Amino acid sequence: MPHPSWNESYAFRTVAWDTGQPEPLLVEFVTSGAVTPGPALEIGAGTGTNAIWMAERGFDVFGVDVSPLAVESAQAKIEGRTLSCRFAVWDILAAPPPDGSFQFVFDRSYFHVFDEPGERQRLASQVAGALASGGLWLSLIGSTENPPREVGPPRRSAREVTLAIEPVLEIVELRSAEFRDHNTKA
Fold first, then answer.
1. Angstrom distance (rounded) from CA 41 to CA 161
2. 2, 65, 118, 167: most buried, per Cβ within 10 A?
3. Is the CATH number of domain 26-185 1.10.10.60?
4. pLDDT tens for each residue of 84-113
């Protein structure tokens, strides 16, 4: 990280994950009451769709992404609105979290872009440093459950996820779901 083509992907609009709609699994998690509005960090916020959705529901959201073009687009979406939402270019692996006060950290498909176990462990450590005591991290990660395929998000096994996260955070729930419109397990 940073991936050499993230900005290029946004420039050429080749970002299949940017649907313009909030992630259904995030919506389900928030509306179930699993997390209440408070300070939230979205890692890999892209053009801000999920961060803005959370802010509209009372969260104080800080959305970060490594792509300056994605962040510019996200900032444009909130221009003139009175939402508790801000965006910044930030590589979570390269710099420590702003502080440890987030009650909720969300990432949709960020964890699984890292091929090296050490990078995934560093990400988990950085998230742990960003979370307030008792905070929650919801991470949607491409799963190895489906048959092999040639395209789609990188895939991580439950073992890889556990080995990266459990040294610094407790996994409260690990379950299978499906990314909407991608027919891909998460």
1. 20
2. 65
3. no
4. 999 999 888 888 776 668 999 998 876 666
Q: In whole angstroms, what is the distance from residue 156 CA to residue 52 CA?
A: 28
Angle at CA 173, nearest 5°, toward 170 and 176? 135
Tokens of 61: 């959201």
Q: Where are the domains of the chain?
A: 26-185
Alpha helices in the chain (DSSP H): 6-11, 24-31, 49-56, 68-78, 117-130, 158-165
Q: 68 CB contacts (<8 Å, ≥6 apart)?
A: 7, 89
The neighbour count for residue 16, using CB atoms within 10 Å, is 13
Q: Is the peptide bond before 2 cis (omega within 30 degrees of 0)?
A: yes
- Which range is least confidently modeled, 45-49, 60-64, 181-185? 181-185
How far is residue 64's CA from residue 48's CA, in Å, rounded to a whole number?
9
Quote the Cα angle for 39-43-44, to 5°: 145
Chain centre distance of CA 140: 7
pTM: 0.81
State which H helix or E strand residue 105 sits in: strand 102-108
Q: In whole angstroms, give the CA distance from residue 51 to residue 73.
A: 13
What confidence tens digit (pLDDT) does each residue in 8-34 have? 665 556 555 677 789 988 999 999 999
